[in-house]
Each structure stands twice: as structure tokens, then as C-alpha cells.
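INFO batch 0412 | record 1 of 1 | parsing
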Amino acid sequence: MSETHAERRPLQIPCTLEVPGAIPLYGQTRELSDREASLQSANLAVPNIRKPKTGDAGVLTLSARGHLAQREPLKIPCRVAHVIGTIVGVQLNLVGLNSRQRATFAALLGSER
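INFO prediction complete | emitting C-alpha cells
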């Protein structure tokens, strides 16, 4: 793996993880890098409903605020890497993002929060 990838940064960004067949997870990111993100969602504490599972494909929507905000939230394809308690780790797939979306994502990684 290349060493040029950004390290995980502790960033709290409002987000939603949507996985087909599972409840939408509303919460905030805890850490973010150009390869992965972890997020915390109280929805994972709700019993007896389908939650995302390791390997599930989905979409992580980041709702940037302030000067980094776009008209539409940043939607990033992802795959669930792990679910532990109220924390979900996802692997991000940035390949399909357009240049504006990539610039916004890069700005998020470089932002101080």
C-alpha cells in the first residue's frame, strides 16, 4: 500500500450511512481518511432491526458545513468493514467522485475541526 494516503483524522461531520435492506444510520464521523471512515450512530443501539453487516455495500453521505458545504451532500460509495457497538467502520471508494467532489473531500480532510 502506498504511504501517500492521508492518515486517519479525528473529524466530526454529520453523516448518514445507507445500506440496502438495513436501517439508515444517522450520526457523525469519528475519524476520516482517504481510504476509510468510522462513524458513530445511536441507531445501532435499537434492538430487533436489520443493521449493516461486515461486507455490505452502501453509501456514506457527508453533510459538510460552513465554507466546505456544497449544495448537495457528498455521497461516497463504501463497504462496511466492521460494526462494534454503536461504531461502524467503512472502506471508502472515491473513484467515482467528480473533480468538485474530490476537492470538497480533500478540503474536509485538511480542515481543522
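INFO post-check: The beta strands are 9-10, 14-18, 25-32, 36-40, 57-62, 74-84, 87-92.
INFO record closed
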